[in-house]
What does this fold into?
Amino acid sequence: MVEKNCLKRNGEKYVELISEEQLKKRIKELAKKLSDDYRDKCPIFIGVLNGAFIFLADLIREIDIDCEVDFVKISSYGGGRVSLGYIKSKKGFDAEVDGRHVVVVEDIADSGRSIKFLEKMFAGTNPASLKFVSLLLKEDNAVVDFKLDYVGFNIPTKFVVGYGLDYDQKDRNLRSIYVLEE
Ligand code: IMP
Ligand code: MG
It folds into this structure.
């Protein structure tokens, strides 16, 4: 018998870590805070592809102020469950960020290298402010110094999938977030 809140996929066991209801509730809270903090500032939310697309879509629909949306695309994990340790830019942002309030939206911060890389992407531009939000933070796994301004959930150092996060490009469509059991 399959236990409740577990999935069996491709011979692996997925254990639910954050349910759809918990995600919805926390995203509403984050959206409320962002709406309050950016009232009358018309921020540009810049989603980091691919992982953040679902989070960003749900987040902005809970936001009740004028805002704009753009995307960047970077890659770090080379596939599998282990970070390659180096980051590549696959697509830069198109938005004119000069003088604008920019909020970068990530799915997860693990080593912190991606956040650092994204900070550098904005060096030389002149936004009125630059902040970072990540749905998930593996709080014990940082290998570089980085700062997040808004965090959805602190999670243990485990490989997670679902709600936009992938394992070899799959599982992004799962509605909850799951830990892949070793
Ligand atoms: P960092 O650069 O090590 O902080 O890793 C950040 C990026 O690696 C995230 O934006 C994800 O795309 C990916 N990543 C890190 N941890 C996980 C995970 O547990 N599951 C799926 N992707 C992950
Ligand atoms: Mg990501």
Observations:
- Residues 44 and 70 are 7 Å apart (CA to CA).
- Strands lie at 6-9, 12-18, 44-49, 68-77, 83-91, 101-109, 129-138, 150-155, 160-161, 177-180.
